[in-house]
Amino acid sequence: MWAWVLHRISGATIFFFLFVHVLDSAVLRVSPQAYNTVLADYKTPVVGLMEYGLVAAVGFHALNGIRVILIDFWSEGPRYQRRMLWIVAVTFLVMLVMAGVVTGIHMWEHFK
Could you give the CA distance from residue 62 to residue 3 in angstroms, rounded to a whole number? Predict the structure, then answer.
């Protein structure tokens, strides 16, 4: 059940990001100076952490989505769903650590 809840939350998070991304891209047509101001605001540590959260949401949603597809379309999927959940969890955590290192390096270089 928790995988289902997290899948929904990560999907809603990705949708919210895409909505904000379309809005901030639309600012470019209205005013290039305002767009540059928005981009400058995105270079804050808080937004860096939000980007890391976005990577986490996309990563979990993608990995769990593959698991859901396998459960639905593979005849042995329901039998191995718990094992696949553990594989998703371990893969996600490894990916999250690697993404954290890369994001941390970029944030460190940016705020030096």
Answer: 12
Binding site membership for heme: which residues? 61
Q: Which among 1, 5, 7 is positioned nearest to 92, based on CA atoms? A: 7
1-111 is classed in which CATH architecture? Up-down Bundle (1.20)
The binding site consists of 61
Q: What is the pTM of this model?
A: 0.85
Where does residue 63 rank: exposed (0-12), middle (13-18), buried (19+ CB within 10 A)?
Answer: buried
Tokens 């767009």 sit on residue:
35
In angstroms, the Cα distances linking 52 to 56, 93, 104 are 6, 13, 9
Could you say which DSSP state residue 20 is in? H
Q: What is the percentage of the chain residues whose pLDDT exceeds 70?
A: 99
pLDDT, tens digit, 9 for 90 and up, residues 32-78: 888 888 888 888 888 888 999 999 999 999 999 999 999 999 999 89
CB 52, CB 66: distance < 8 Å: no
In the chain, what are the domain boundaries? 1-111
